[in-house]
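fold-stage: in
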Amino acid sequence: MEGLGSDAETSFAVLGPLQVGHGGKPVQIGGRRLRALLSLLAGSAGKTVSSSVLVDGVWGESPPANVTNALQALVSRARAALAPGASREGGALVAGDATGYRLAVSPGQVDAHRFAALADTGRRALAGGDAHLAWTSLGEALALWRGPVFTDLADGDTASLWTARLEAARLAALEDRFEAALRLGRFAQATAGLPALVAAHPLRERLRAQLMRALYGEGRHVEALAAYEDARETFADRLGADPSPDLAAVHLAMLKGEWREERGAPPEPPPDPAPGPVSDAAPGGVAMRHAPAPPDAERTRRSTLPARLTSFVGRETDVAAVGDLLAANRLVTLLGPGGAGKTRLAVESAEPLAGHGRLPGGVRLVELAGVAAGADAREVAEAVSAAVGVRPGHFQPGLAAVEAQRPHDPLERLLGALTGRHLLIILDNCEHVIESAALVVDQVLAECPEVRVLVTSREPLNITGETLWAVSPLHVPSPGEPARSSAEAPAVRLFADRAAAVRSGFSVADHLDVVVRICRELDGMPLAIELAAARLRSMSPQDLADRLDDRFRVLTGGSRTALPRHKTLRAVVEWSWDLLDERERMLARRFGVFAGGARLAAAERVCGGEGLDPADVLDLLGRLVDKSLVTVTVEGGRSGEARYTMLETIRAYALERLSESGERERMRLAHAEHVTRFVEEIEPGLRDRRQLDVLAAMSAEHDNASAAIRWAVDAGRGDIALRLVGALGWYWWLTGHRNEAVARSREALRAGEGAPPHARLVVRAVHNLNVYEQLQLVSGTEAAALLRDIQESAVAVGRESHPFAAMATSVIALAADEHTEPDCVAALRTHSDPWVRTWARMLRGFLGIGNGRVAEGERETELALAGFEALGDRWGAASCLAALAETNYLRGRVGESADQSRAAIAMTEEFGAPEHTLHLRGRLAASLWTAGEREAAEAELARAVQIMTEAWDPLTAVILLVLRGDFARERGRYAEARRDYTEALALIGRSRQALDTMRAPACTSLAMLALQEGDLEEARLLMADALESAMLRAEGPVVSVAAVGCASLAFADGEPERAAMLLGWAARMRGFEEVVGFDHVRVTEAVRAALGTEEFSRCHERGRRVSREGAAALVR
């Protein structure tokens, strides 16, 4: 059997009558319906085909009375027929999920997918100029076809659509192979096959051009010109149009005798937009369109523009105009009503900027739809920060001094991070936060002169410098306009494009008058047109136009709409809503309570009951998906569960209908209780080996949780608010949602003011720890006050603390007293929770390392590492590894340090935040350099710098610039080193973040460069600056860096004894004798050589006995 594989896998051939094989032998599939089912599943190998599509494809317009049971029975027959393959391959080949069934095989086991892959290879080869490879690959692809496809499917939309799309793919492959033949000069082979194809597809211009070129290439010039005349007459008769300018240009060149295939072959047609997720309306994986070229890597890395899922119609002039406005103005606002296409226009206008060098920082899309109406500027700034890659730092070992410099205000942090960046920010959907958005944009434009902003909104920001562009509806034909120009009107073109995507064979020429009427009644609004075109899956254009009459009296300004600014969207959604039956409407309005979508089990639990059987939810959700009111995606991670989501405009309409039904408060309560139970159940997994899965699950439920908290607070249900905030505390901590944690915990504490102490304890800890992190109170009465607040609550509870409360207490206690182990930390050693005991051990380790008891600290940290690894907590393990990598590096164990850094990087990357690896990458680069792997070190550092440009943070930038300067200085590239050091210091000076701690290392490195260049006076001035900055901080490692610099300066001044003492004092500040480090090694060897080993040791020991307070004379 030609279409079947010969290995042990089960293979499927659908490019002709269905064939199934296993181990190279045919598998008999009896019965048309069973063959139809397997044909559909094989066509979408590995992807789910919805039950409704399967039913239509198997039974057509005559489904059985109990269609669900009938489909299940047919699936059982399919599993039995495929049982030999299933037993060898580890499970049933036909698997069910939330929306339908899928064939659990790889695409390579289905001939249609092999065809698609080979055709794509050929197409790409053509684009790359390799006609030989294209000819071969396309020949192999076409050889897989054995006859008509999907002949077992029942007559209906599914059969028509699937057949048409596979035939379209075959035709495209044939065209590509003829193109390869022409480029190879095989004109006779082309002329042998092209006439029949042209006769079958007389309106296909590419085939017409290929036939002309083949005839001309064979020397049959008169016939080539006649072929053009035939095309012109056919187009005029059938379309009322002339051939395209491209085809006319080929004809003219042939007419003049100037056509040369090798010189003037017409360009390939532009690729269609990249297809979106494979729907169950087409064979999955089969390339139905020309594949786009691979995305430009640099553009992808630097921009967050969404991939195109559909073509862009009718806005070419607008795109050019908006691009010109952006080139001349720093703030452009696209104004228009909902559904006018503002977002798509913004993305299309920004795309050229993302793909070229005009904006090195790229383009970032900020979707404000998820920000609550009336949110303040802080929340808008948080949304912008997340989109441009600015995140709060995590608590990390050895970085307390670094983290202390981060500003707590989101707007200040955003402005600091945008300093010096050249990028375009798209603020999408500003109207519900217009005042706050205006404030943020005004500040960004004033403080960050290289940033440009493109806004979409229903009203202007009304700030200085704003340039407005009105986004009007698409042009619709005027009454009496000729058919040719009517068909080319943007609104009609959009309708035709979207209709063809859902209804195979649709031709606007066959329904032009009705389509023009529809577009007029929809006022040319793109969203309304797209939703209307989608209805052609189940309605004729005439039926659609007839049903729109009443609805679009509202669109033209009828008074029945409650929200005038939503009237166009409301009319479109209401029209779709009216097509639902009562049970579908009941589920749809109840489902509106899910702010972030839901899994099936959640929808069943929350929406079921009170007139809706939970067992029916699956079927009803599938129907809502089919009717485009709900979308379904598969969650990432290992869960692989389906997630159902409503578009926000449809959800808002559903909530209004829910209020009208009188069910809103009951459903909001059910939703809040469900989310609370769910989060409470999975929260312990954040501290064990379930960590990544739980993080993914909580991230998926983040919007639902936020909505539930807001409802609970507004409804006076402080008990629910306290429970939910307490369960989310650790998630917010791990993901850096500091401001959200503070705001939500504060709201919950107010709402639950009368709740018992145990209900408030964890929320109090969430609030106080995140306040501490925001303000970075490393000592003093404020930290002590936060600590007492938690401790008093714990005493009132009178029982062992929740792990989060235990962590919060210990972190803040260490801030209040950095040098001794607080009693509350010591008490955690006997906690019943093994994670808390491991946490306490890690803190003791960090405390020992930071206070000079390095051996003890390393031992405790290693034990903590083992504990976290046993528990499966990646965050804890990475924190321990980071601390050990630091000390091992300074001790000279650079290989071990590099391994630990790599392990910590791998764990941290699993959290999906590569910017949190930057300090680790810097340490890894230093270790590699010290080990002699200089090229690898520079490559690692370059990788860190690349990530840093994505998630810009001035603090990280300073650290990496200083390290890169050190590398350059060690290679003798002093000019490069000075540029990096100077840039780091300039960044410190102009940043809105306080970076005093990093000023000391930067000044020290620049001072050492001045010494190497022989400028002692500059070195002295810089070291004075470094010392002043270092002594402001309590951490020994920072002071030790400056002390080594002072030792180098003392030696250059001819004072080797004082230099040795300074080296000893640096060792005391650090806690051990550093054996690596660029300047430390150099000055130590020089001083020892000058004094002799005995005198060096004596002076060094004297320096180790000098206290911090007594160091003033030493560092003069």
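fold-stage: in (second)
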Amino acid sequence: QNLCKLATTASLDGFYHKPRIDKHLLAPHCQGLIGLSACLKGEIPTLLRAGKTEAADEAARFYLELLGENNFFLEVQHNGIPDQEIVNRGIPEMNRRLSIPMVATNDCHYLSRGDAKAHEILLCIQTGDTFDNVDRFKFDSDQLYFKSRHEMADSLGHFPDAIANTKLIADMCEVDFGKKTYHFPRYDLGDGLSEDELFKKLAMEGFEERLAKIKKKRPDIDEQVYRDRIKYEIDIILKMGFPGYFLIVADFISHARKIGVPVGPGRGSAAGSMVAYAMGITALDPIEHGLIFERFLNPARISMPDIDVDFCIEGREQVYDYTVQRYGGPEYVCQIITFGKLKAKAVIRDVGRALGVPLSEVDEVAKMIPDTAKNLKKALDEVPAIRDKCLETEAKTQMLEVAMLLEGLPRHASTHAAGVVVSDKPLCEYLPLFKGKDGETITQFDMNFTEKQGLVKFDFLGLRNLTVIKNCIALIEKQGKTPPDLLHLDYSDQKTFELLQNADTTGVFQLESSGMKELISRLKPASFSDIVALVALYRPGPLDSGMADNYVERKHGREPVVYLFPELEPILEETYGVILYQEQVMKIAGVLANYSMAQADGLRKAMGKKIAAMMEEHRTLFMKGAQENGHDSQKTEELFNLMEKFGGYGFNKSHSAAYALIAFQTAFLKAHFPVEFIAALMTSERSNSDAVLKYMDECKAHNIKVLPPDVNESDAFFNVDNDCIRFGLAAIKGVGEAAIESIVENCEKEGEYTSLYNFCERVNLSKANKKVLEALIKCGALDATGDKRAQMMAVLEDALDHGSRIQKEKADAQLDLFADSGVGICLPSNIPRMPDMDEWEGKVLLELEKEALGFYITGHPMDDYADIIRKFANVNTVTLQDVEDEKMIRIGGNLKVQKIHKTKKGDLMAFCNLEDQYSTVELVVFPTLYARTHTFLSQEQVVIVEAELQKKENTVKLLGEAIVPATQAETLWAAGIVMQVDAQQHKPDVFDQLKPVIERYPGNCVSLFNIHINAGHPDVMVKLSDEYKSDACPGFFQEIETILGPGTIETRCAPVKEKVKKKKRWSQKQVT
């Protein structure tokens, strides 16, 4: 406890670059501690090196007196540092003078001597320095490692007592961090009831309220089943001693709802508890959904309940603050530390930076590491080309070697995203505390060690989708519409299921990824249980094992549903005979093999974690139970094997059902209130340009107009304006909350802004500063004033000076003339005229707009390539929907690489987004094409793509065959060149002028003359022989137009060739 308190105070109160304590603090907390005089930086060695022997003796006497005889030792070390020899001569003399025992030690900064250089590079990473900097922070020794007994004896053998004392101190240390009991926080009972009585009272009151609503909705329920369930759970919770836990969780959830912070319907196995449902902790009826209490709390295994709670991401902090205040303050309640580790890609980047390897080379190696690789060793096994790439230079070889040594080490400490610990006593009596980077108090022990101390942990998670729901409801109310009661929706709502079956699930919780959309399109959900199944099915295990395919095929009657035993049908009917949920495994064990639910939970755990020894025990137990029930042993063995195979992929149905509820709620809102829902989505992702752009695409798909930002119309967040979405000012980069508040508030009070000068006169210019004004001008938010963006940017400095002067004059006049009257004053201002100048070019307008917003809103870069794309492309992202599956198409768009992927063969491929003015489509670039195009793929630009269209129900994907920058399309893809010859303008000798030009530019394009004779005669097209094939290059076009006139030459594009059908080379399973 004393050590914990000292470490806590050092971090919370004494931190200056490093945690520190002083002697005054040490005195009251020295009981039970052993002290050593430390390394060269310690107080006593520092005094000895300075020749201050008397002061060193005085310091040693202080620690000896404070800690007690045989509890303070003088350290001797052998580390190769010259100053250490001075200390090693002084320490034995002190030992003789003061009779203070010595101890042999060695500072251990790394495990073995060979790690010394890796440690130096780690120091460079920590300090942001480079290895080649001679002035960097470093240790002047390579001996700061964990030395063996033999090495210690060799180097300090002349101090035998000191070496013996090393073992003595180790034997003296008897710190036991073992958990003896749970340290439940005190719950304020208030009304004189015991904790158990209050728990039971609140649980039963909540149960009766829930039951009344259930009976109203479903009158035919068996009420006794519900009453038996609540009684059983209450008895178990009381017996296990956990009522306080439920009271606390119910308390902070209740408070969250009172202050308007949305709370999720449940998370994890807690949704299987009727008590949690009754106390308002969860929002799912566990009996209706077939959820099992023992999956949450196993009475045969005493372990703390684990209830994770989702809060609106914007309100999580409020609930945490309440919990801190309610349960004793920061001494009793704090968040939990987590350690960021040096992971494969990050450690390559960090080490490369420290060693001075060129950034481009480091980036190249890092991008070769597959996302699926757990570590660098796995990455090298999967992609041997990484090693080859690193062997190209000595620097990169060293980078890889050091990175493999440092990988997995802690890089930094931060606050865990969810973990909160609440104690019955000051936390520092159980563990040390630490100050986070934002000044918050957190534990020095991570999650696992904190729980091992018996401390009670709660998980407060922030869920963005709950914030989306909250903001959507607010927008619905703002429009004067009646918001839906999300906890009492019609779970057979036709409009919602139409949306789901069309895979129109962008923005829908858990259901918006492209892979999930593909599964939805195949599965065609028609009930809430189908949504529960989707959440469980869309995981690597079910997808790779074929479980998802079986579910889909059986649901649509294309594959028979067969049950090995009739008793399985009631259990597996909802999943068409597929063992999808862990709860199904538990029920099968109970029905067929007489397992109690507590035993069945043990089987579930063994299957999920693939614990071989436990599985064999359960195989014997299962076979025995099934035999007692008269079941055929061969079929029982077959069933157990199936359970073992697929049960390991089984998902927690309680969690799946709880998240399916949020999925349904968000789908319902999108189906019935699409404008408000998408506006809420855009607000939630306002700082993420890619996400806002994605939702703008969604607006196009739903024919929802997005209005640009406007200082006279926009709020801080995305708003609904006559069934359109008005851009929010908070999504403009560089425009902060304080500036927005000033802009919106002033507009509401004093009316619209009429000019840039008028704007600067009225807003708080300390908040809406020059940077803010530049962003507003660039994105067009001040266009409503009627001035050009170029004009406003040209006079911005003058406008700011003018605004500051007018505001000062008004403030001075207010003080001087009406100090006592309380009467306001409005001084007239002479607004300067805008300079007469042209607006910026369209390209400049767009680029500045994108700079301010992160994307284009009033135009698109493709607008400049419209003619080329119209000539070469045969579809766009809208007409693409009408093209048959597996057809070859040609399409233009702005290409952006989303992910570089390493195949099992070690080849690189890319997943890209191709965006035109209408929408975005995914483009897959396989290794062969990637090898030809990777040099320009890295640059975001407009391209034309030939690809095979892949359609799976409502999802579309392009499999690239050729990619050409739009600027080179005519040169590379033109099949013919047509020259327009007007017989009325040109004499016959014009062909003599054209011939040498054509001969100077030989190429692959067929040359054609389109001869216009007169208005009454059709044009004549003449194809030249192949010897006059020409090159569609700018020089050729320029020379021809010099002879024939502007616009008299154009290219003709060859039609897209259909691909020769081969065996499919790509599927979800192959791209790993």
